[in-house]
Amino acid sequence: MYRSQRLALKYLTAAMVLFGVMVLFGAISATYYVNPSFLLNTFNFNTAKILHIDTLILWHLMGFFGAVYWFLPVDTGQEVEGIALGEVTFWIFCAVIAVVAVVFIFVQYGSSTEFSLWFINQGRKYVEAPRWAAIGVVIVGAVFAYNVVATALKSSRRSGILTVLILDLIPLLVLYLDAFPAMTNMSQDLFWWWWLVHLWVEATWEVLIGCIMAWTLMELLGASRRVVESWLYVEVALVLGTGILGLGHHYFWIGTPRYWLGVGGFFSALEPLPLLGMVIHAIYDAGRQRMQTGNRPAFYWMLAEAFGNFLGAGVWGFMMTLPQINLYSHGTQWTASHAHFAFWGAYSCGIFAVIYLALGKRRQSAGLDGWAWKWSFALLNVGLLGMVGGLLVAGMDQAFFERALGGSTWSAFIALQHRPWYIEGMWSRFGFGLIFAAGYIILMYDMLTIGKAKPAETTIEPREAAA
Amino acid sequence: MPNALIVTALLLGAFVLLAGVYGLLYSLGVLLERPPLKSAGYFFYLLHFLLMLTIVFATPLGPWWKLLIAASAIAYLAIPPLTWRHLRRIHRNEERLHDSKPARRAARTLAGMGRGA
Amino acid sequence: MEEHPIEKVAAPGSYTADSRFWRAGAIAATLFMSAVLAILTVDSLKAIGPGGSHVPTYAVINRHIGYEYDTDKHECVPEVGGEELLFGQRYDETQAAQLMAKGKLVIQSRACMGCHTFFGNGAYYAPDLTKAWLDPLWMTYSAQKRGDAIINFLMNPFHVGYHVMPNLHIDHEEAQAVVAYLKWMSAVDTNGFPDCAGRNPAK
């Protein structure tokens, strides 16, 4: 096994641990909605929620890094350049996350000084981590990029997938620089913040997962490099062709000019189209395999990725993206419904597929199967759908009664909390969240044990280029 | 608008969902060579189209947005067959490439490069 | 240059089967859309700077702010009226900017976005604060007293309704800055967000 792949396994393990932390703080966050005095003034909602959404981003990043470290040596036919540095920055990454989490939990917030922004909490959504930690993330990201680029330059094989990945890393890393500034003007702050958030999760991350899925298709299904690369270019063209100006759907209401209602709404409405293409592609590939594969969990999580992406990002997104709807749905539980579904479908399922692929190679067992992955697959997806459904009902109630009829006043907000559908939505989300958590526990058990019946340490041969 | 808010949103979501069901059934129908599945796909596309007409004629969206929805409906019709055809073509080209003499020669060259790397 | 083998087997005229076509498309689409985004960004940044077409200068906190229905635009728009001092003090642009900077620092240091939304962005556990300065609950106070009422709430949050705001140890100076920030924010033209039910004569 390449040293880079050993590092990949560390990253993927850390990613799954962080996923568990995310689930834990998600359950805690959900508790406040059904019990508002829960831990009041001891551990407030915002602290729990920050831990939930920050680990969301971080577990995905670790999953992406792990996937790239896994596939990179196989794609280039050589060990990753500077891998020793990559191993160091992995532990730096873990340490940074741990320290930030401890400070969030035990200090929570500071006074209104630069010190608080540097060392405690920056208070900007998803990038609340203090500036010192953001510097750490930049260093980790820079080393990761160095590992990828240096390996590509040294290798005699530079695939189209790798070229796309390298080009994608540039905006990926540059956009993160928005984690640092604290602009006074909220409109300006949010304008640039959306460059980071949207152009990550609806542009550069989509290209990144596209590259990872291309490699996964080659490894899992023996797909031809030329074919997956060709499809990758189609994806990049359509996803970036719609997603870059789809950024405008975040510029409806933050004080930006009116033309964003048209630009953002138009391109955003086109975003589901490539996602339908991805569903067709998934069916085609599944068909070529006749649904047969030695690694059933990886295969099924890949299918879940295509369908989940279409439903969560495409269908759920389209419901709320036109400005006429979004005026009322904006900043409600409806948004949370879409966000949970989209992240799950677009990214989480894909990372699980990569983890199972890596486990299959690592454990060299005859085939990965069993009861546990099926139970975890079912519980996680049912739990997720239940949470999304509960949030959607609550969100629609909120959009109609608090926003449309109530004019988003404080008393309209208070009245909403007593509405039966809203309350049932919140309880439903809580209950299905527990089902989701149960699915996570079984998933972890499965990932730790699957394929271990005949452990055999064998060398993983690098795959030849398509020939 | 508030009265039509939820209904319009649900119609928009169903619009895309039905396009997805059409795509799924169409693809399965072609894959498994079962015309009834393909026909079921077209039936769901018909529902998708009817939903588009409902959105155009029965919701308070502005005229340009309705035009966008109508144009999208045409695009959703084309995506499954075009995507399938494209995938089939690039896979066939790949298979032909492996079978052709120059390709076999190229493959030997590439394999040699790999061993020497 | 030797013809690529694929060109011998690809069907004539089927350039869409050539990955180079899609590679070119991906590059072209990315570059074109990025260029349009860059142009619109330059324009938008002008509009959203203090004093721009959509965002008032910080000294607007010295004026009366309203949010009334515009029959031409079919939405509520912020209205800046005559002098209405905050905390009985007239702030020049520099002083107002300092107050805003302090207010934003409080909002970030306390992670207000972890519970509230600003222009609808943030968390959905607590009310949206875009028009908090103009909330009917605070409008029961006169303009002169409203600022102090909100300050008292921020420093000692009382129980209102189902959700409870925690005590974040906000001191008087910080609370003043937050109130000023909320007043400035309520004057930003957000293209009609939040919709102003009750003010629209058609509803």
Task: Please tell me about this protein's structure.
- The complex is a heterotrimer of chains A (467), B (117) and C (203).
- Chain A is mainly alpha-helical and 467 residues long.
- Chain A is built from 16 helices and no strands.
- Chain A has helices spanning 3-34, 45-76, 83-106, 114-119, 131-154, 160-175, 186-221, 225-246, 259-270, 272-288, 296-321, 323-329, 333-363, 372-405, 410-416, 420-449.
- In chain A, helix 1 (3-34) runs antiparallel to helix 16 (420-449), helix 8 packs antiparallel against helix 9 and helix 14 (372-405) runs antiparallel to helix 16.
- The longest helix of chain A has 36 residues, at 186-221.
- The model of chain A is unreliable at 457-467 (pLDDT under 50).
- Chain B has 117 residues and is an all-alpha fold.
- Chain B has one domain (2-116).
- In chain B, helix 1 (2-31) packs antiparallel against helix 2, helix 1 runs parallel beside helix 3 and helix 2 runs antiparallel to helix 3.
- Chain C has 2 domains: 5-48; 58-186, Cytochrome Bc1 Complex, Chain D, domain 2 (Orthogonal Bundle).
- In chain C, strands 1-2 form a two-stranded antiparallel ribbon. In chain C, strands 3-4 form a two-stranded antiparallel sheet.
- In chain C, a hairpin with a 2-residue loop joins strand 3 and strand 4.
- Chain C is elongated and about 75 Å long.
- The model of chain C is unreliable at 1-12 (pLDDT under 50).
- Chains in contact: A-B, A-C, B-C.
List keywords for this structure.
heterotrimer, B: mainly alpha, disordered C terminus, C: alpha+beta, Cytochrome Bc1 Complex, Chain D, domain 2, 2 domains, two-stranded antiparallel ribbon, 6 helices, elongated, disordered N terminus
Brief synopsis:
Helix content of chain A is 76%, strand content 0%. Chain A is an all-alpha fold and 467 residues long.
Subunit arrangement of the protein: heterotrimer
> What ranges of chain C have pLDDT less than 50 throughout 5 or more consecutive residues?
1-12
Which consecutive residue ranges of chain B, at least 5 long each, have pLDDT under 50?
A: 111-117
**CATH architecture label name of the largest domain in chain C:** Orthogonal Bundle
* Radius of gyration of chain C from CA coordinates: 25 Å
Q: What series of H and E elements makes up the topology of chain B?
A: HHHH
Q: What is the number of independent domains of chain B?
A: 1
CATH hierarchy, class of the largest domain in chain C: Mainly Alpha
Strand content of chain C: 5-15%
What is the overall silhouette of chain C? elongated
Main sheet specs of chain C: 2 strands, antiparallel
Mean pLDDT of chain B: 87
Task: Report Rg of chain B.
Answer: 22 Å
